Amino acid sequence: MRAYEIIQAKRDGRAIPPADVAALVDGFTRGEIPDYQMAAFCMAVFFRGMEDAEVRALTDAMLRSGDVLDLSDVPGAKIDKHSTGGVGDKVSLALAPLAAACGVKVPMISGRGLGHTGGTLDKLEAIPGFRVDLPVERFRALVRDVGACLVGQTARLAPADKKLYALRDVTATVESIPLIAGSIMSKKLAEGIDGLVLDVKVGSGAFMKSLDDARALARTLAAIGRGMGKRVTALLTRMDEPLGRAVGNALEVVETIELLRGGGPADLRALTIELTAEMLLLAGVAKDLAAARVAVERAIADGRGLAKLEQIVAAQGGDVAALRDPARLPRAAGTYPVPAPASGFVAAIDTQAIGLAAVALGAGRARVEDAVDPAVGLVVEKKLGDRVSAGEPLCLVHHGPRSEPREAIAARVARAYRIEATPPPARPLVLER
Ligand code: URA
């Protein structure tokens, strides 16, 4: 089928033969199929979905668009973690060094901001000099010698995802189980991993808003991974408020350093420990989850996690001094608070709206060619269940030259909060394993 016929068939709800899915992905990656046709196809998939065979064909074609690394000569278990995307989700920044400090090899291909969510690559690039575009040979050497390396998709590693990810980001075609599955698993399977921990987010700040959809995504991701002979663990975790307090690239780096120094917000710390512990378990370097958690907590307490982050940053060209002195990180032009319109308890936060406020400040992209402003973002002062008095700050906004005006941002943030007379029931962070 020609691209037009593939789009038409999907638009009308018909399954696309695997060979045609592969041809479409190959043509798009080579630049023969233009962005507008691929964007139309993604929108058709968004509405019509894909059958299992189509998702397998999509993932396989995206995986084969670049190299599949063989890290069998690197001693130790190679385990990665991937989140389906959230707001304030900076877990990878601390998890990769912590897992490496505990003896796991972490080859990590990450993404940039996507829709209302932030991306690990944009956060890392807030560290002056940090390079995420390393050649494959350097990636392999750093996984072997340092224990972890965090890079982006390249012309050799998952190039189809590099192009498609950027296109989906700006065409509102992210929240689709087949497209998310192809994107995540093509990157992860290209890394040469033995096992993968999946953090499948659910809630107002996730791409999957309901537990049923998140379960379906987790099952699809795990089935693809296990079908390729990988060990896979998936956790369904709450994304109904920003994780931690910082939302925005440099702000999230600062919060990561706080965590690795033994502080940081409790929810971020708990989830980072849990996901890293799952990696240790998959790697076989801890006998059970309880022992794995203790090992990760020890790596925070004795400073090995922070030392490993410094080693990773140095190896990837970043300014290590900026980790010790956050004043060297990009700083916003100024800050202002967003006051609570009423007194009560924070009953709900439209977390996607908070993520979009961060994008409107310049922390994410409106068009493929946009650059992010690493300095801008929000610090969440009031989280779910917190008591708040009218006029108290809900968030502190860090704004920049490209940010939407103060009134527009303040309205976005205020609208995102629901304040009621009673607090909401407390829910665990990890909803299912
Ligand atoms: N993370 C990814 O890598 N891809 C998606 O599509 C969503 C989250």
From TrEMBL:
Query: SMART domains, per this entry?
Result: PYNP_C
Q: What is its EC number?
A: 2.4.2.4
InterPro entries annotated for this entry?
Glycosyl_Trfase_fam3, Glycosyl_Trfase_fam3_N_dom, Glycosyl_Trfase_fam3_N_dom_sf, Nuc_phospho_transferase, PYNP-like_C_sf, PYNP_C, Pyrmidine_PPas_bac/euk, Pyrmidine_PPase_CS
- The UniProt transmembrane annotation reads none
Specify the Pyrimidine nucleoside phosphorylase C-terminal domain's residue ranges. Answer: 345-420
The domain of life for this entry's organism is Bacteria
UniProt key word Glycosyltransferase = yes
Give the catalysed reaction(s), semicolon-separated. Answer: thymidine + phosphate = 2-deoxy-alpha-D-ribose 1-phosphate + thymine
Q: What class of enzyme is it?
A: transferase
Q: Which keywords appear in this protein's UniProt record, sorted alphabetically?
A: Glycosyltransferase, Transferase
What protein family does this chain belong to? Belongs to the thymidine/pyrimidine-nucleoside phosphorylase family.
Q: Which proteins does it associate with, and in what oligomeric form? A: Homodimer.
What name goes with this protein?
A: thymidine phosphorylase
